[in-house]
């Protein structure tokens, strides 16, 4: 019975296989038939298409021959020469140079669109004379060529080549009379679609405006395309440039204020001696206050125009520093201001405007407002991507400013604003720059600063006591030789401050986080609220800030105490008790039997603060300059503290971990244990503030993380 069943199944399988093979063959045969039909009908369609072309050619109206004195030359057979097409004279462009000179005196590169096109059509076997741009040219054309000094015409055999799309566009210009009559219609472009920036950019590109450059007032150049997209030139003006009716000189005349603008205040004129000084010299001579000097220098820097009124030079900040007419102590501030012209580089390499950089915290808000005011006063906001100034309506449309910020700038109190200084300045006939006329007798004299050669009075945040230089020298922070020279008056106070400031203020702690995807800057409290970091990580880094001097606003760099930070809403009040311990690590602990504040190292030794938490505070202090002495507020480097027996071997072991488990901080990006110094070195900097780079938290379990289930 089983054998019969197997035979039946085998027969059924065999039949099914035969049916499948037949179906596959049928499908293949059908595909072959379809392919044959497709080729047949395609050939038939091509034949009909060629026949239609032939009928159109035969039915085409042929213009009658022009009567000439040489009737024999126009025989019936002449129309069939050159395969039935008449000779076509192709025009070649006469390159007529119109050199443009920028401020630096460099010759502008001539572009083909500035050339003038002429049409000459003498008879086939005569010589002729013609006038091109009021100059006479004599034509000789052996071998079907017309030759002049600047022009060469070649007779090309064969049918003309037509662009169907261009022909349709040209029809609208040919149907109606205009000022462009007589112009080669192949160069005409449809300028009617110029409402959107994208369309204007496409139109400018088709006319070649993206390859036409004009100089600007920022030691660079911009394209005519940029001028057209920002509506500084009209469609009619671009069309005239495209057709060769105007040149780049006219375009520069139309847009001069937005290319160059007005020069900032260049210096000061002493009305008694009639001597002109640059801003730095005027400040050194007491003709300007420090606030005025910084405002004037900042205004020059944000226009990339550091002015020396004596020589007439206008340089960038770096070049002005090398030339020596800008003080080096303003370098960092002026370089930041100069980026308002050329743009601020974001994390992803994108160039940001001043307004965008201000929103991201890369520029302090007050400084950004001052720079915007300067640019408005001297001609308009500068677009770093377009490399020229723009009108206010275009600035609003392009996102270079918003209506709220514009209202703030318009309603600013005059006070000692830049507009007030600019309005009081006058044009100097000798230098050509605007200068402020000042009478030395009316200038506020500087009060002489009394110098105590025994004290270092530079203020330290949260500490009001001065530091004796002898004490600092005994601590090894300053060389005894330098101290003796200072006491004798052989070196000035600035040299001593330069040596001591790293020990007084320390370097900056990690101020916040930088979100990689958006480029936004957040404080640790804000990052916690956005769930970019964990609560424990946020608390540890806020404690590190306070243990090194105070809470930090990562957008402005401002530093303040814990109580002020809570009142400013920098941190939630619920964190106050947790962060108080860190504030004591900076200001000192209170311990019975000690008259003054107890330093953190001693507090760890006697058990006032936990060893793990105290080690994290010490790590942050060492990484930012050294251990804090709460009695005076200055820092002591770790190696110096060890040499003076201020730390024992046990504390040194805590600060030099051998395994990752002994490191006190967690990298919020990877979840790995690291020292504060390792995290600080890996930070990105914005406005010289170290920031941890983070991304959106992924739902992943990394190595060394503990997971609790249930």
UniProtKB/TrEMBL annotation:
SMART domains: PLEC (SM00250)
Any one GO molecular-function label of the UniProt entry: keratin filament binding
Record's keyword terms, sorted: Membrane, Phosphoprotein, Repeat, Transmembrane, Transmembrane helix
Recorded GO CC terms: cell junction; cell projection; cytoplasm; keratin filament; membrane
Swiss-Prot/TrEMBL GO biological process terms: intermediate filament bundle assembly; wound healing
Transmembrane segments: 12-36
Gene3D superfamilies referenced in this protein's UniProt entry, alphabetically: Plakin repeat
Name this protein carries in UniProt: Uncharacterized protein
